[in-house]
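Section 3.1: Structural characterization of target chains.
Under the original work plan, the team committed to producing a structural model for every single-chain target entering the pipeline before any wet-lab resources were allocated. The record below documents one such target. The sequence was received from the expression subgroup and is listed exactly as submitted; it comprises 214 residues.
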Amino acid sequence: MQPTSRQQALERYTAAYDNASYMDIRHRIINDLFGKDAEYTIHEANEQVIDLMNALQDTCLECCGADQHCGSHITLAKLAAWGKLGNETINAIQFYLLRFEREGSTIAVDFECSAKALSITHQFIEQVSIGTAHANGIHAWQGRMAYHLLAAAEYLLRTAELLVERHNDLGYIREKLKYGLNRITNALYEGIRFSDKSEMFNFKSTYFPDERDR
């Protein structure tokens, strides 16, 4: 795509803007945050609502080619996930973004997929954390193995969360991933040491890619 000046992006935004759709999205957000019976006039000045609507506007400008708003769709996706917006609201936002998107752009669909992935990942992390705590109390090698695997799942989910959020600290991402792999190793030790068929938990032939595979 050809680079777009700020003025061109603003002109494209103004031409594609639809107030009815914009207001509908704000109403949907308020309903998701505060309930179906929420008074719009009371909540429209809420900080969370304002942050979401500002991120929506920034993402529209990003769709229009404004470089200074690059990455706004990720901010919008994170806010949508943290606010636990429903899929219908996320779909409405994606459809609205398509009004502004230039040919060849994937911003709208990337927002939709990121928001839904983060929403589900957040739910899984909460549930897996509870499951890990319960498995820790099982008095058997199977329970200990399950405990380590659930702990690994939590670390791997947090790694996935960071990746979807486009976290720029690769060292931190590596740290979470390493902790997850260590937990998997601990789980395999339980199977190797205490099961009657230790060979079933021998994965020494597993290959991990390195820089030579680049």
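Residues 145 and 187 are 4 Å apart (CA to CA).
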